Hints:
two-stranded antiparallel ribbon; Zinc finger MYM-type protein; mainly alpha
Amino acid sequence: MGKRKTIDSFFKKEVKYSLTTESFATPNLEQSPSDKQPHVASPSLVKGSSRNPSTNVSNEQEKIDTALVYDPGLRPPIWDYPINQRDEFSRKYVNAGPYRHMLTNYPYSGEGNNCRRFQASWFTSFHWLEYSPAKDAAYCLPCYLFTDKPSERPEANAFIVEGF
Length: 164
């Protein structure tokens, strides 16, 4: 029996190119005669320019930033976000990384001989692992990000919605 594979063994970053000094050559700065004349905007463009499209983009970014809930036990599933903004939400969660609430002692769950608790050492073994102090449960960040619809099988949502 071979070595057990982990989720990390399936996703290795490969470098397919190398940087050389030729790729950093300086561009040709000569201008053609038509490029030397100043550009004047048409009056219709100037009139409509009072509305800045970058303001709309920054407002949407602020909405996304304030809508993010980092605790995996409290955040809504990715499929509940508007479909045209899921990619932005996913990027924000990827940039933030897994939610890791570090405690010295995690609470016990279960009863009798089935008592168990979360271990902080699991964060170093499983870089994708998240912990929710609100639900005292473990979650999988990639599972959350790449699941686009709820599963009809309840065990499939263990690391996404309910926690484990």
